[in-house]
Amino acid sequence: MRNFEYYTPTRVIFGKDTHLQVGTLLKEQGCQKVLIHYGGNSAVRSGLLDEIKASLTDAGVDFVTLGGVVPNPRLSKVREGMELCQKEGVDFLLAVGGGSVIDSCKAIGYGIANPWTDVWNFFLKTETPKDCLPIGAVLTIAASGSEMSNSCVITNEDGWLKRGSIKSDLCRPKFAILNPKLTYTLPQYQTESGCVDILMHTMERYFVNFETMEITDSISETLMQTVIYNARILMTEPRNYNARAEIMWAGSLSHNGLTGCGTAGGDWACHQLEHELGGMFDVAHGAGLAALWGSWARYVYQENPERFAQFAANVFDIPCGTDYEKTALAGIEAMEDFFRSVEMPTNLGELGLNLSDEVIHELAFKCSFEDTRTIGGIRQLNRKDMEKIYLMAR
Ligand code: NZQ
Ligand code: ZN
After folding, report:
1. Which of 144, 191, 256, 267 to mutate to test the pocket of ligand 1 (most atoms within 8 A of CB)?
2. Which ligand gives the minimal distance to the CA of 123?
3. Nearest alpha-carbon partner for 209 in 304, 323, 305, 298
4. Ramachandran angles phi, psi of 287, nearest 5°
5. Which CATH superfamily hosts domain 188-393?
6. 307-331, pLDDT tens digit by residue?
7. What is the assigned CATH class of domain 11-183?
8. pLDDT tens readout for residues 129-185
């Protein structure tokens, strides 16, 4: 096992009606003026935004609002948010939404708190942020884990590059309000796409080729089983509170570092490959991951068949003999069967993309940062490997 540091400073307020505490929580943070940042109109339609505003007004917290964050959030909206916050003297950012809104807040927070450079430099990783405006989150979709994570992902329309920021504890939200009921209104596709993302945040940390900690493995395997079990329930019972709650908490635990203790950060190749799809084709992040994962797994599993066999045995109860390769492949198939059972794609065609050789070449070129980097941990992948995986997934 590897040495690790575990730090999760986000205060979590979990359960029914917890979003009504938001005004009090903000007051406790000592803020003067808050930006309420939100997405399209799901939070308007459900009445959530009005409840948030009422809670702030009751607590005597001044605010301005900015909606319009789209999935795969854009740099132009970040810049708009920065301008508004500077004009209005905002000193706290409240995200009401999912990963896209939280990430937009994080980027605005970086932009304002580091006026000495352009905010995109933190995504090019040419500069390191020194500060970030404080952030709180009222989560409306269980998926990204951004409510407790140390990173954010933004798409620059100039070149349609989707890039993750430098990882930094500075952007971890001060608090995250997790009310599972707020996720009742999610379309099925978003619910299940979110479940895949949650699984992937654990799997990215799980598939390594060195010795890991038993306790981290057990937590990860139980988390994956819990998500698989409840994701299936939500296909027919979208208003099942317990299932929504299990998924929501799994989402935060999956990406707050817990499942990476002792695994040196993990692999993350699938996320890197997917980000190019999100940037160029605006696909839902979890669905994009589902479309790529099987191809990635088949490309790399021979680096550590025992690990993939352990996954098959402990997550899918597949009997594991001494033929690790066979068990490993059965585990990969079982995960793809699960994706199909919740109507998630298992290849790019099912994701709705019909990609030419030229486009696949471009995806790999971009993902390899113009042939200057490799990705992955269990196996390091160069541009040619990336191209092969995209082709396998086509
Ligand atoms: O915009 P609205 O109208 O709110 O609709 C959203 C959006 O269309 C809808 N939605 C959210 N809550 C809803 C709802 N619809 C009905 N009822 C509700 N309660 O769902 C759609 C997707 O929302 P989005 O915020 O984009 O989803 P998600 O949380 O999956 O976030 C995806 C983004 O997070 C990034 C992804 O790359 C992607 O850009 N990630 C961020 C990470 C991080 N910061 O740590 C890690 C992840 O790996 C991921 O990369
Ligand atoms: Zn993700």
Report:
1. 144
2. 1
3. 304
4. -65, -40
5. Dehydroquinate synthase-like - alpha domain (1.20.1090.10)
6. 999 999 999 999 988 899 999 999 9
7. alpha beta
8. 999 999 999 999 999 999 999 999 999 999 999 999 999 999 999 999 999 999 999
